[in-house]
Write a structure and sequence with these properties.
The protein is mainly alpha-helical and 651 residues long. The chain has 25 helices and 4 strands. It starts with a helix and ends in a 17-residue tail after the last helix.
Length: 651
């Protein structure tokens, strides 16, 4: 049985633990080495005292312990500082490498093509659309950064944009999506933080060498002035500390490189699997040139992220323990066994500064098979097929241009979400429209009017995909605009005095996207065990079981399917189908709030159990899909694009 998205995410967590263990060993060796170097340094200073002074380790054990503790503190503090910087989000990492976000309303053909390819891959994968960045470099390269699937960014250099064809660019983006989908980003980001601590020790040694040189170069003031000798001792001590730090850094880089090489092979293979076009990724690799020289970047911060890049940053053909990427010929032959050994030319690259349509058609929909076949839908998360990518491209191509442009603009994205929430009932529509006209900015109201003309009606199956398309632009909103936008959403939903399941899904999905990095960290740091959320688990599964059931017997059948999926993951929770009165919308909403704090393994199994409940009868109704998407958004779990309302619900 092939691995699913959830399997890859769990495997990534295991790799992270093993990598952490390896770095702890490297840190321990560094700390112990610094302690012993300090002991020998004290011996060097003692030679300026009595001639019969003899160094004994037990006489200086306190100093050695202090030195070791200080080294450990420096490593941990430096690593923590770098970790905090990296946790600011993918925008911080991209901008530190000289990147800038692709403008949503760009008219540049290359940038629009990049954005379209990223959107197609995201829609086909069933994950939120990542932010798209351009690195102002002539080198041919790309990378993916972020700590979570729902908070990711893809960056591509101008060299890559100018060099790659659409098929080659799609192969590279598929490669980067593999890193996102297989959980490599979080590990890659943490590797940078851990290496930063080890690097600080070697930098401390360099500082001691400079200090010693400055002291030794001072003119002697008297015959008893030992500044020259003291300076030499500082230099010797600095060299020793630098060596200790460099040894730890060396082993850390070996571990980093080994992990990176393994993941590059997987990402190349995944690019072929996703696109079904080996020539795309193969020709992109061939354009990196012999030894990967064309992947070189000039920005200083880029070297720290070398293991996260598509191509090798070094102009030299590195191989062996410290190579962050496998040999280029080996990577090409893996995806194209018939490769003749030749490379492709890349033209010159110029750097640049930052910078009435048909209705949406009905989408082809499949009725769901019950049981195991339905479960296979979530296996498609993060595993886009070439057919799914073609469908995503076709769907995007049929969108009214007004709507497509709006989804890529922060003001337009807000207007499009408002359009999704506007109701058909005239009395409610008037209340909603008046509230927006009284409080919203003119540019948003003007865009909303254009969207209403382009989308007088919206097919049920297109509502949530349209919402997903808005997410990247909404994430770019300034904090004060996020608050105002969230308030407008609450007002639109409250206009008729009640909340339906679609409105709940919109609120959950949008509010998850508007969540700041600080809020996301607080949520992840406040985990609870499933034993402390028994009532909430039963509310969620009971609600999903009852939404598609016409009678008590069908509800029990759905809940039993969910119970079977929870085997081994429900702790001491007694799973039971709750009465309909306990499954009201407010209770379901409150349950989602609590379940968002579960550990990832429990969240994933709970979502699979919820899917079993809604799909057991072979069809998914709009109410079931909306509730399921709301729950998935609360738990920050991506949903397969194949998960749509069944054919029987089409109108």
């Amino acid at each position: 049985m092939s691995k699913t998205f959830f399997d890859h995410q769990q495997a990534a967590r295991v790799r992270t633990r093993w990598a952490l263990f390896g770095f702890m060993v490297a840190i321990l060796l560094t700390v112990v080495s610094v302690g012993f170097v300090t002991g020998f340094g004290l011996y060097g200073f003692s030679q300026f005292g009595e001639d019969d002074s003899v160094f004994r380790i037990n006489e200086h054990w306190q100093a050695i312990a202090i030195a070791s503790g200080t080294a450990l503190a420096i490593i941990l503090i430096a690593g923590l500082i770098r970790h905090v910087q990296m946790m600011k989000g993918p925008e911080h990492v991209m901008t530190s490498m000289g990147g800038w976000r692709v403008p949503p309303d760009t008219s540049d053909g290359e940038l629009k093509q990049l954005r379209n390819v990223v959107e197609e891959m995201a829609i086909a994968s069933g994950i939120p659309v990542p932010e798209t960045y351009v690195l102002n470099e002539r080198g041919i390269n790309a990378c993916a950064v972020g700590m979570d699937v729902d908070r990711a960014a893809v960056g591509v250099t101008f060299g890559a944009l100018a060099t790659f064809t659409r098929d080659e660019l799609q192969g590279v983006i598929a490669h980067e999506f593999s890193h996102i989908l297989h959980g490599d980003m979080r590990l890659n980001t943490r590797l940078i933080s851990w290496l930063a601590g080890l690097f600080t020790i070697s930098e401390l040694g360099t500082m001691l060498i400079h200090w010693g040189s400055a002291i030794a170069s001072q003119p002697r003031r008297s015959k008893d002035d030992n500044s020259g000798a003291i300076g030499l001792v500082f230099i010797a001590f600095g060299v020793a500390v630098w060596i200790c730090g460099s040894i730890g850094l060396f082993f850390g880089k070996i571990l980093q490189a080994a992990i990176s090489r393994q993941r590059e092979y997987l990402a190349d293979a995944a690019a072929v699997q996703f696109t079904r076009n080996p020539a795309g990724i193969a020709n992109a690799l061939r354009k990196l040139g012999k030894g990967g020289a064309r992947g070189k970047l000039t920005h200083a911060e880029s070297m720290e992220c070398a293991h996260m890049m598509f191509g090798n940053l070094n102009a030299l053909r590195l191989s062996g323990l410290l190579a962050t990427h496998p040999p280029l010929p080996r990577r090409i032959r893996q995806v194209d066994p018939s490769w003749d050994g030749s490379y492709l030319d890349a033209g010159p690259v110029a750097l640049r500064p930052q910078q009435g349509p048909p209705p949406i058609p009905h989408q082809a929909r499949k009725a769901f098979a019950a049981g195991a076949a339905a479960m296979g839908l979530m296996d498609q998360v993060g595993m886009p097929s070439s057919e799914a990518m073609r469908e995503a491209r076709a769907w995007l191509g049929r969108l009214p241009q007004t709507v497509l442009d709006a989804a890529h603009d922060d003001a337009g994205a807000q207007a499009l979400v408002y359009r999704l929430l506007l109701q058909d009932r005239d009395d409610v529509f008037e209340i909603q429209a008046k509230g927006l006209m009284d409080r919203e900015e003119p540019v948003i109201l003007e865009t909303l009017q254009k969207i209403l003309q382009a989308l007088p009606e919206i097919d049920e199956a297109d509502r949530l995909p349209l919402l997903d398309l808005c997410i990247p632009a909404l994430r770019a909103l300034e904090p004060h605009r996020r608050e105002a936008f969230a308030e407008r959403i609450r007002e639109l939903i409250a206009a008729d005095g009640k909340v339906n399941l679609f409105e709940l899904a919109v609120r959950r999905i949008v509010f998850a996207a508007l969540e700041s990095e600080q809020e996301a960290r607080a949520r992840r740091g406040n985990r609870i065990h499933i034993n402390n959320a028994g009532q909430e688990v039963n509310i969620l599964l009971s609600t999903l079981s009852r939404l598609g059931a016409d009678n008590q017997s069908q509800a029990e059948e759905s809940f039993e399917a969910a119970r079977n999926r929870m085997i081994g993951y429900h702790g001491r929770v007694q799973l039971e189908l709750l009465p309909a009165d306990d499954c009201e919308l407010q209770a379901f909403n409150d349950a989602c709030e609590t379940l968002a704090k579960l550990a990832p393994a429990f969240q994933q199994r709970l979502i699979l159990a919820g899917l079993a409940a809604v799909a057991v009868d072979g069809e998914i109704r709009p109410a079931e899909l909306n509730a399921f998407r709301a729950a998935a958004a609360s738990l920050n779990i991506p949903v397969s694009p194949a998960l749509r309302v069944s054919a029987t619900e089409e109108t």
